[in-house]
Design a protein that fits this description.
With about 120 residues, this protein is mainly alpha-helical. It contains 4 helices and no strands.
């Protein structure tokens, strides 16, 4: 797998950027902006790391966990019930990033195994 070519990680980066940019058209409620900003930035950064250094399954798993946390953030920040519009702007990109991340784990493991064969150490 070449650097900067994994579409799954580009999707995660885009989902993170969307989550951050969505703050401009949603009304902040409580800590919603903090959760959206943190989750979006971390998702974009880990996606970029995975693009720059493919074949790191641990980083792909971290991306998957971050995507799951972005999905959970409306409940963690208590803005899921009162402001569903804001919540949907985290649930949808989080779910998209989660699906893309699940699809990225196996290729990353394959690249890792190709470069680190069993018994080579």
């Amino acid at each position: 797998m070449k650097r900067w070519t994994a579409w799954q990680n580009w999707v995660a980066v885009a989902a993170g950027v969307y989550t951050v940019v969505a703050m401009t058209w949603t009304t902040a409620v409580g800590s919603s902006n903090a959760y959206m900003l943190t989750g979006g930035v971390v998702l974009a950064v880990i996606g970029a790391i995975n693009l720059a250094a493919p074949g790191m399954p641990a980083a792909e798993w971290i991306q998957l966990i971050v995507a799951a946390l972005v999905i959970a953030s409306p409940w963690m920040g208590n803005f899921a019930m009162n402001t569903p519009g804001v919540a949907w702007n985290t649930w949808i990109p989080g779910a998209v990033a989660l699906v893309a991340s699940v699809m990225a784990v196996q290729p990353a493991m394959k690249v890792y195994r190709e470069h680190h064969p069993m018994g080579s150490h």
